[in-house]
């Protein structure tokens, strides 16, 4: 109960017409009617892991399935890119600041990864004051966060009023995802005990399914997986293990551009292996961790329902980026194929229709503008994102036509991609110019971006997938020369627009 109402009760004035100063009236109405926000972020999850994006997936996520049935699924959501091997670092900076890839700082004021970071015209010096929690704090929201530590926007994370961060990637309740959920449940319990009526923003993050994927024993057993530790042997094949993923290859046809990359070569249980036993076991470990996340989300949603808060809460579920885990012969997150550049995104809340899907063309950096829109808060002037509220409310199909992607955490300039309609171009320039490649895909015809290697007989025998004639890299097909030229021009235009400091061998310097 607000202090204004308490004062009126003590004076016996309830029931009378009383003029209350506007600032007090706003505060009182805010407490009772402004929506809550539950933002859920998992660490390393391809949309193709989930049945709502890939019906053939063997991962069981009944809570996310229910959220999707009660809300809207965004089919085209992406993280924009990264200038560092720890892709989550740039991704989480974009989420917290609402700014594009080349307009954000790196951790600890490092200017090595983003050459623009030292330019105050491109990266505002006091950006932290305009990040997610700081904005919601000023608007009268109670803000709480639990997530992993490290590879994130540390200064922005500290703006939350309540912070319980820790790396929890173990296979027990105390060492795994259960711990993150418990922090949220205890926070909600404290609010309930205090009868706190302020609206809340809860940043509900997980440390899984990021490697090392030590799932709970019963879930590892369900998916036939083991926490393999011996680099001199392969894990045993098990009929309960998930099948090889669509798009699996035993190796990528050219180097990914980052020698000695941890996520490609040094993950325990994976190393340099890309064989069937390793990939199926690692997928099983990934699924065990992801199902546990689903269970933990269910615990929190049930608590919100018991408190009567669920119907007035916007819920956004997503990941900081996708993962390969055997697709295209890759293991990590340092690529621009759809399984890794895309992220899952489900949105549920007041006014959002149930059981719908939209294209979206959303970046994770749009989250700040969207959550502000849900809450009736003006987005900060530093924000470069676009609210996708009209998309999830069914008022429009996309928030932008073109999408740009980048990875240059390895040798420069690295990889870039651009999407326009159904067409996607990926360009590579790595290892001091020794690897220069282009890939042109029609995603409507070739959604899994099959390349020539996927049509090899031994790969087809292993995966059971035989690509069609047009399910290939079309970059050398003369029928699509005009389309290729259009996409190349569009990529350069996006690189210029977004202040990308690098250029490819066949692009002008500026």
Automatic annotation (TrEMBL):
Molecular function per GO: arylsulfatase activity; choline-sulfatase activity; glucuronate-2-sulfatase activity
Keyword Hydrolase: yes
Entry coiled-coil feature ranges: none
Keywords: Hydrolase
Enzyme class, spelled out: hydrolase
Residue ranges constituting the Sulfatase N-terminal domain according to the UniProt record: 35-377
Pfam family, one: Sulfatase
InterPro entries: Alkaline_phosphatase_core_sf, GAG-degrading_sulfatase, Sulfatase_N
Keyword Disulfide bond listed: no
Its EC number(s): 3.1.6.6
Protein name listed in UniProt: Choline-sulfatase
């Amino acid at each position: 109960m607000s202090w204004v109402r308490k004062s009126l009760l003590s004076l016996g004035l309830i029931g009378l017409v009383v003029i209350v100063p506007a600032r007090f009236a706003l505060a009182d109405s805010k407490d009772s009617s402004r929506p809550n926000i539950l933002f859920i972020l998992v660490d390393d999850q391809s949309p193709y892991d989930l049945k709502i994006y890939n019906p053939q997936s063997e991962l069981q996520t009944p809570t996310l399935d229910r959220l999707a049935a009660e809300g809207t699924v965004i089919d085209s959501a992406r993280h924009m890119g990264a200038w560092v091997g720890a892709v989550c670092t740039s991704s989480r900076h974009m989420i917290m600041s609402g700014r594009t890839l080349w307009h954000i700082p790196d951790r600890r004021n490092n200017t090595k990864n983003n050459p623009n970071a030292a330019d105050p015209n491109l990266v505002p010096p006091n950006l932290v004051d305009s990040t997610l929690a700081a904005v919601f704090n000023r608007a009268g929201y109670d803000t709480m966060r639990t997530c992993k530590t490290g590879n994130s926007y540390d200064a922005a994370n500290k703006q939350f009023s309540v912070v319980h961060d820790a790396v929890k990637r173990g296979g027990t309740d105390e060492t795994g995802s259960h711990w993150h959920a418990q922090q949220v449940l205890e926070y909600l319990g404290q609010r309930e005990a205090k009868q706190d009526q302020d609206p809340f923003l809860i940043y509900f993050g997980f440390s899984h399914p990021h490697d090392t994927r030590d799932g709970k024993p019963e879930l590892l057993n369900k998916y036939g997986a083991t926490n393999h530790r011996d680099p001199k042997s392969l894990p045993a094949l098990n009929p309960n293990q998930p099948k090889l993923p669509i798009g699996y290859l035993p190796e990528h046809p050219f180097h990914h551009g980052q020698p000695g990359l941890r996520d490609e070569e040094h993950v325990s249980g994976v190393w340099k292996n890309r064989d069937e036993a390793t990939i199926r076991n690692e997928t099983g470990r990934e699924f065990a961790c992801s199902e546990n996340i689903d269970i933990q989300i269910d615990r929190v949603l049930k608590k919100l329902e018991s408190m009567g808060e669920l119907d007035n809460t916007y819920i956004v579920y997503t990941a900081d980026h996708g993962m390969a885990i055997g697709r295209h012969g890759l293991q990590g997150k340092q690529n621009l194929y759809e399984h890794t550049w895309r992220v899952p995104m489900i949105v549920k809340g007041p006014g959002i229709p149930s059981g719908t899907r939209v294209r979206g063309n959303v970046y994770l950096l749009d989250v700040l503008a969207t959550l502000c829109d849900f809450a009736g808060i003006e987005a900060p002037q530093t924000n470069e994102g676009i609210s996708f509220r009209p998309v999830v409310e069914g008022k429009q199909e996309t928030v932008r036509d073109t999408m740009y992607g980048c990875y240059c955490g390895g040798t420069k300039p690295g990889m870039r991609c651009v999407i326009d309609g159904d067409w996607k171009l990926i360009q590579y320039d790595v290892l001091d110019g020794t690897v220069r490649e282009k890939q042109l895909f029609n995603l409507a015809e070739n959604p899994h971006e099959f390349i020539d290697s996927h049509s090899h007989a031994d790969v087809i025998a292993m995966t059971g997938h035989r690509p069609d004639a047009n399910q290939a890299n079309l970059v050398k097909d003369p029928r699509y020369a005009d389309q290729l030229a259009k996409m190349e021009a569009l990529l350069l235009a996006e690189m210029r627009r977004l202040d990308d400091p690098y250029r490819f061998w066949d692009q002008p310097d500026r």
